[in-house]
Amino acid sequence: MPVALQSSSESSVSVLDEILNAPGVTSPFLAATGSSSKPARKKLFRRVDREYSQSLRLGVQLFLVALNVWIGVQFYLWVRWAESGGQTLEVSRPAGVEGWLPIEGLMQLKYFLLTRQLPNMHAAGFFLFVSFLVMSVVFRKSFCSWLCPVGTVSEYLWKLGRSTFRRNFQLVRWTDIALRSLKYILLSFFAYAVASMSAAAIAEFLGSPYALIVDVRMLNFFRYVGSRTALVVLGIVVASVFIKNFWCRYLCPYGAFLGLASLLSPSRITRNLDTCIDCAKCAKACPSALPVDKLIQIRSAECTACLECVAVCPAKDTLAMTVPGGLRKRDAIPVWSMAAGIAIIFFGLVGYAKITRHWSTDLPKQVYLQLVPNASEQQHPMPGAH
Ligand code: SF4
Ligand code: SF4
After folding, report:
1. Is 331 left (phi over 0), alpha (psi -120 to 50) or beta?
2. Relative to the CA of 277, which ligand 2 atom is closest?
3. Is the dihedral of CA 67, 68, 73, 74 positive or negative?
4. CA–CA separation, 228 vs 304, rounded Å?
5. Distance 354 CA to ligand 1 centre (A)
6. What is the per-residue pLDDT for 84?
7. What confidence tens digit (pLDDT) does each residue in 263-302 have?
8. Which of 44, 150, 298, 320 has its CA 20 to 30 A from that of 362?
């Protein structure tokens, strides 16, 4: 049942504060919620509702992992069919693989905004990209903690590290901030490349042989991985065991993009100062190392809406994902409605693309039979070059 939670003063806050919101970082919210204002120890009114956010999230994560494994296997079989000249088992190309091409999705979004025309190649990637973007604007960076298979693997790697070594590690503050800027640097590189392309240049790129089989090149990158790349991947895996969400926190430009979009979101974790007993369990549980127990509202670009903080809070009606519910008032949203909202956005856009026949890229088989076996020979087209 939705409950009204105490609203924070809507004090202005810089984008940098939003992005770097972390323990020890000065924030207007910290000033507003200093523990000095609460001298007496408060009585705990223990929550009685059944907490199911993490089992629901795990169910969604497992569904998405299974879906991606299915897509991956089907895509591999399709590539093998094309490489063999049509001799092996023929399966259709799964368009969902285009969800793994976010830079192309960004190009397609720009093309759509400039021309009002839906892309006719790899449109599934466009619809998936837009659904993840909308999800971030509505439910913060929920894509990372509910849907992304890489996020799921990262999460279970640090949970494995915690159960094995009884703890995870946190980098010292300035190293952490410096490393967190890496994902924004990578994002600016891609954003600059896309921003400098005209609609005509994007159309030319998307129709090029290179772009038509860029997904095959991506698969081949992992099929024929070199020793140096394998070492880098191994390093990230090992680091992920010790440091929570190492890839997502420091390196993922897609997460950085969705995090910036999430700054527009009206939904945010909100703490009720009146009932909070300052036990700090929420801050300890937060995989993004956010000082949940010190803030009234979590507006950080690092919040993935995982609800781990909500799950561990022992106090009744104290911590919840909330949306504006009127003037200076916020209403808690039930976990099921958040999961339902994510599903509606995801399946709604995918369903729309399928019903309007925009989902699959319709190319003659001969094109793929010719391009796929020579995927590694395709050169990245230079804008404007003919
Ligand atoms: S634990 Fe709470 S504050 Fe931390 S990322 Fe998850 S939802 Fe956001
Ligand atoms: S878990 Fe966090 S919000 Fe809940 S009572 Fe403890 S400090 Fe307060």
Report:
1. beta
2. 5
3. positive
4. 31
5. 34
6. 95
7. 999 999 999 999 999 999 999 999 999 999 999 999 999 9
8. 150
